[in-house]
Every structure is written in C-alpha cells, then in structure tokens.
Amino acid sequence: MNPRLAIGSLAALLAIAGLALLPQYLSGYGLSLAIGILNYTVLATAWALFSGPTRYVSLATVAFFGIGAYTVAVLGEVLAWPLVLLIALGIGVAVALLVGLSTLRLSGVYFVIFTFGLAELIRQLVTWFEVNKTRTLGRYVFVDISQTQIYWQLLALAVLVFLAGFLIQRSRLGLALRVIGDDEMVARHVGIDTTRAKVLLFAFSASFMTLAGAVMAPRWTYIDPAIAFNPVLSFQVLIMALLGGVHRLYGPLLGVVPLTLLFEYLLARFPNHFSILIGLAFMVIVYAIPQGVVGLIEKLRVKREASP
C-alpha cells in the first residue's frame, strides 16, 4: 500500500473513532450543533459528488431530504426503523432516476430552474395529498431514536459518502464525469454514455440526501410539508459546498463548519431576516472566492512555490 494512503487511512480511522465518542463529552446544545454539522456535511458532500465534476447546479437537495423525512413521518410508528430507512431510500432513488432520465439532457440555467421547481412540485403534491386524502396537514413524529443515535447514524452516513466519493474519483465513472464537466460534447464524441453516467451519479447523490432527511426526522416532534421541503435548505447546502470548494472531496466540509455556526447565530439573532442574510452570504462567496476555500489555498500554495 502507498505509505501516504496508509497514513491517511489510519488518521481517518482515528478521527472517526474520536468523533464517535464525542457525544459523551457534549452538552445537549453541543450535541445538537454537532448533529447539524454532520447533517450538512452529508448533504453538501453528496451535492458535490454530482455537481462538482459535472458542473450541473442542482437545487433539488430539499426534495430528496423531504422525501426521507416525510417517509419517516408516515411510516415511523408502524414499521421497524431499518425498514423505514430502506423504503425511504427506495423512494428517493426511484424519484431521482425518474427525474434524471427526464431532465439531465437539460443543462445550465434550465437544469437549475427545473430542480428548484421539482422541490416545490413535490411539496405541493404532498400538501394536496394531506389536505384532500388524509384531511390533515402535518404529522407528529414519535420514533424511539435518541439524539446520540441520530448523531451516530449521521456519522456513519458521512463516512460512507466520503468513502464513496474517494472510490468514484478513482473509477472510470469519475473520469467520465470529469470529461462531461469539461466538455459534454467531447465526452459524447469519445464514446461516453453521458446520460447514463449523469443519471447514475444523480441517483447515488440523492440516496444520501434522502437518508439524511430520514435520519433527521425524529429530531422534530411535528413535520409538515413546509418544514420538510423548506427551499432554504437547498440554498444553504449550495452555499456551503461553494464556500468550501467542490473540486476536492473534503472541500464542502470547509464550508459546512463555519457556515453552520454562522447560520445558527443568524437564525437566533435575526430570524425574520435569515433568508435575506443567506442571499447576501451567497453573493459575497461567489464574488470573493469563486473557487472556494480549497481553490484559494491551492492558489496561495502555487504562488508560494513559484516565489524564489
């Protein structure tokens, strides 16, 4: 084994072990904050798995997150927890495959608009079904899952999404996606099945978003479509991924930690202006550091190495 890879693997294992023990030393608020950081880590990294190499900007994160959360709200009390997660995963992947096959021939602003509309469409469909069929709007969530168990499940998801990203980057699929991101027309000319590659990774990315929503659902006593499919979540994930940088697997993490803390502060101090402040943060990030923190670090390193 490559010595650097061996050292990196050992460091990762030690970090995972330390993070797994962390809930024993955290207060209730600290554990809640750690859960939020892990949730956004899963979502932003899963978003970057697809959008990073392909350069397709998706705003459908909350659509899949909401599917996972609402599946738990509907089935959490009547089925075993592993089965609920499996059903949520199946629904999320099925929707992602259907959407991917239908829309991934779009690109640029058309794809952005469609994914934003998808989340709103699913929210409206769930609202219509609840009001007209169940005669209620919203559900109480009573699932015997503790905060510590939520933390551990999110940590497992975070480990899996990083491992998946590491393997994809070194696979033929990863190479194909990078070619698609550079020039999709060239990718087609060299024999890459661009639609198949994009749909596969889109569904794979959506699976982690769906599971994150399902795992997070027990944190809420009550869920309605406005909570589960809140469009602000998609923009938060986008901002975090862009701040950290989507061209490196660890990049989104560098955006998740500071922005989770910032958003926590803003939501507590300025709840009525939170959406406006998120928009301002997005504009500043895109203008000031378009390549993210990772790109800035690499640029500074190149300058330092080039200087005498």
Please characterize this protein's 3D structure:
This protein is mainly alpha-helical. It is 78% helix and 1% strand. The chain has 14 helices and 2 strands; from the N terminus they run H-H-H-H-H-E-H-H-H-H-E-H-H-H-H-H. The chain has helices at 3-21, 28-54, 61-75, 81-103, 109-134, 147-169, 172-182, 184-189, 194-216, 225-228, 232-244, 251-269, 274-288, 292-306; strands spanning 139-140, 222-223. A two-stranded antiparallel sheet has the order 1-2. Helix 6 (147-169) runs antiparallel to helix 9 (194-216). The two termini are 35 Å apart. The model has no long low-confidence stretch (mean pLDDT 86).
Gyration radius, to the nearest Å?
A: 20 Å
Question: What string gives the helices and strands in order?
Answer: HHHHHEHHHHEHHHHH
* Helix share bin: over 70%
Question: What is the β-strand count?
Answer: 2
Q: How large is the count of helical segments? A: 14
Beta-strand residue percentage? under 5%
Q: In angstroms, what separates the terminal alpha carbons?
A: 35 Å
Unreliable segments (pLDDT under 50, ≥5 consecutive)?
A: none
Shape: globular
Mean pLDDT: 86
**Category by helix and strand content:** mainly alpha
Largest sheet: 2 strands, antiparallel
Query: What order do the strands of the largest sheet run in, or round the barrel if closed?
Result: 1-2
